[in-house]
Specification:
single chain; alpha/beta; TIM Barrel; 11 helices; about 15% strand; globular; binds S-adenosylmethionine; binds 6-(5-methyl-2-OXO-imidazolidin-4-yl)-hexanoic acid; binds iron/sulfur cluster
């Protein structure tokens, strides 16, 4: 019997631990009547995350715009004319001020993003980033970075400097990825994630809804994440924020119930992960966000800005959590760096 129970039997699942889910099983779940699906995901959620907590993460763009890559959703690609100009790497003092402010406001995770194809050991900018990371990690928050591609050495150095988690999204299915980006491949993304795990950092990896992909593409993306060994420590689910000037500027928004279904199957497919309701939250009603929390989301970006686009006001988020009786998550729950299982391959198999 599957760990999430017999799909034809709507009564009780038997076990709620990590399960490796394949496409067909995820699709059957996705296609269940809405209430049956969220009932199942809620049970998995309660078994793994009984605390009624939501993790608050603060995001800071430490190097904005001018990116060589052509990700067709991104405001920061130098290939498109958007309102975002290329900036320089932020000075350490300014980053520290922002990190301290995030800590004082109740964030337990600080995520620094840079609009780069990747970083290379021995370069001045990588040394600067390592220096910033060392100082931020002394504040005691979880430290996440998202700097693009990493090799083995770069991953090891970031880990030594104090990075606890590395964000690198697979974004969509392997098949659809090439419609969205041409300057790097899906396999390049997987290679970086392998280096991150080999260096002992937790993987934060998820994707975007609303790129023109099919439901099957979304489910395949989750299948790949579920098959990571170990599974990701956190899974951001972004809804596309259409950026004028990019090829996806005119994309239609994603149906609210499809967002909730994705959150629900992410919770079931990767039960120990923090499922982060990420970009697009500013456009969501409180009621929709609440449904997402019920279905299994337990982390948000907290602060008025994401990287280049807006996010709900911090006070509005705190008010919503209070109305729902949810608490900001305490740091270091001991679930941060899942261990690999020896009995299965380290790499997710690509079809
Ligand atoms: N350059 C690094 C990289 O590509 O991994 C880090 C920054 S990149 C902006 C991080 C993630 O943000 C992307 O993988 C994508 O999932 C998400 N993202 C970027 N632009 C977005 C948009 N307009 N709407 C929703 N999500 C977006
Ligand atoms: C993630 O999955 N979402 C965040 C974080 N990881 C780096 C970024 C969202 C960016 C939204 C568009 C913008 O602000 O430019
Ligand atoms: Fe944007 Fe990252 Fe792609 Fe650069 S690599 S265009 S910053 S998503």
């Amino acid at each position: 019997m599957s760990l999430i129970g017999d799909l034809t039997d709507n009564s009780k699942p038997t076990d709620y631990g990590p399960d490796i889910m394949q496409f067909d099983e995820l699709k059957q779940l996705y296609d269940l009547p809405f209430f049956d699906l969220i009932q199942r995901s809620r049970k998995v959620h309660e078994a793994n995350w009984p605390e009624n907590e939501v993790q608050l993460c603060t995001l800071l763009s430490i190097k904005t715009g001018g990116c060589s890559e052509d990700c067709s959703y991104c405001a920061q690609s130098a290939r498109y004319t958007t309102t975002v100009d290329a900036g320089r790497l932020m000075e350490k003092d300014e980053v520290m001020e922002r990190a301290q402010h995030a800590l004082d406001n109740g964030s337990t995770r600080f995520c620094m993003g840079a609009a780069w194809k990747g970083v290379r050991d021995g370069t001045k900018r990588f040394d600067q980033v390592l220096d910033i990371v060392e100082s931020v990690s002394e504040l005691g928050m979880e430290v996440c970075t998202t700097l693009g591609e990493l090799g083995e050495i770069e991953a090891q150095k970031l880990k030594e400097a104090g990075v606890t988690a590395y964000n690198h999204n697979i974004d969509t299915s392997p098949e659809y990825y090439k419609n969205i980006v041409s300057t790097h491949t899906f396999q390049d993304r997987l290679n970086t994630l392998r280096h991150v795990q080999d260096a002992g950092m937790a993987v934060c990896s998820g994707g975007i809804l609303g790129l023109g992909e099919t439901t099957d593409d979304r489910i395949k993306m989750l299948e790949i994440l579920s098959n990571f060994n170990p599974q990701p420590e956190s899974v951001p689910i972004n809804s596309l924020v259409p950026i004028p000037g990019t090829p996806l500027a005119e994309s239609q928004g994603v149906d609210s119930f499809e967002v909730v279904r994705m959150i629900a199957i992410a919770r079931i497919a990767i039960p120990n992960a923090k499922v982060r309701l990420s970009a697009g939250r500013k456009q969501m009603s409180e009621e929709l966000q609440t449904l997402c929390f019920f279905a299994g989301a337990n982390s948000i970006f907290y602060g008025d800005k994401l990287l280049t686009t807006g996010n709900p006001q911090s006070q509005a988020d705190l008010n919503l959590l209070q109305k729902l009786g949810l608490e900001p998550q305490k740091p270091n729950r001991g679930k941060d760096s899942p261990e690999a299982e020896d009995t299965r391959p380290r790499e997710p198999a690509l079809a």
